[in-house]
Amino acid sequence: MYQPKLSKLLTIECIEHKVSEANSRYGRFKIGPLNTGQGITVGNSLRRTLLSDITGLAITNAKINVENISGISELVESDSELIIPKFHEFSTIPGVRESVLEILLNLKNIILSDNSTDFAEDQLGSLQCTGPCQITARDLILPETIKVVDPDQYIATMVSNQIFSIKVIIKHGRGVTEIPVQLDLKTQQKDCFDFLTIDATYIPIKKVNYTIEEKFLGDGIDSLKELITLEVWTNGSVKPQKAVSSAINTLVDLYLSIQNTMVV
């Protein structure tokens, strides 16, 4: 008996999409119809892929410099004629309300989006402000393809009349890269020796949920089908539709690679 392929029957539809006040995005999708028992297979694999395999951007390193208006820098010079930052993670900065650690945490919370499909190399960003003033992500100067999702993201407040500057390194990756791993990578790049390291969180997906609904589609014995309602919340750097599409492509590539290497 001829049975139509599931791919000809299966559909996915975005039934709701909205952007919250915090610039995060929400999408709700209907997937189906599926045979009985397949809903949890498809739903769980999509959920796990969305939470672990969708790539994103993150600020991984930062270099902080403060100068008086007279031009005297807060950096010190070592005997080896290399400029070494006076500030470490637990330093306080004269004329700046936040400590270095608080500034690094604020930089970590900046959400970036990339309109380019080619992100092979690390990117650099910078800012320079003259106090007194409040510094936000809006002040960052970034490459053309990289955008700040929330320009009002707070960084620091200067309370004195001096020049405050930051240089940042932006990388593309997935998951979370902790500081020990970052330091191992940093030793391979001699030009980044004076940058402070930040825990990199590349994950653009905040939450994924799915429910399975059983529904009769027809009068036959096999008419009982399953429909998946998939809900996706992102941090605003990627649309839920694009994230779901990327997750599906990741799963297809994974299973195709397994199929191609299978010996019959």
TrEMBL record:
Limits of the DNA-directed RNA polymerase RpoA/D/Rpb3-type domain: 26-261
The family database entries (Gene3D superfamilies) matched by this protein are listed as: DNA-directed RNA polymerase, insert domain, RNA polymerase, RBP11-like subunit
Q: Which GO terms describe its biological process?
A: DNA-templated transcription
Q: Name one Pfam family in it.
A: RNA_pol_L
Q: Which UniProt keywords apply?
A: DNA-directed RNA polymerase, Plastid, Transcription
> Which GO MF term does the entry hold, naming one?
protein dimerization activity
Please provide, in alphabetical order, the Gene Ontology terms of the cellular component aspect for this entry.
DNA-directed RNA polymerase complex
Q: Where are the transmembrane segments?
A: none
- List the SUPFAM superfamilies hit by this protein, alphabetically: Insert subdomain of RNA polymerase alpha subunit, RBP11-like subunits of RNA polymerase
Assembly and partners are described as: In plastids the minimal PEP RNA polymerase catalytic core is composed of four subunits: alpha, beta, beta', and beta''. When a (nuclear-encoded) sigma factor is associated with the core the holoenzyme is formed, which can initiate transcription.
Q: What does this protein do?
A: DNA-dependent RNA polymerase catalyzes the transcription of DNA into RNA using the four ribonucleoside triphosphates as substrates.
Instruction: Name the chain's protein.
Output: Plastid-encoded RNA polymerase subunit alpha
Identify the gene encoding this protein. Answer: rpoA
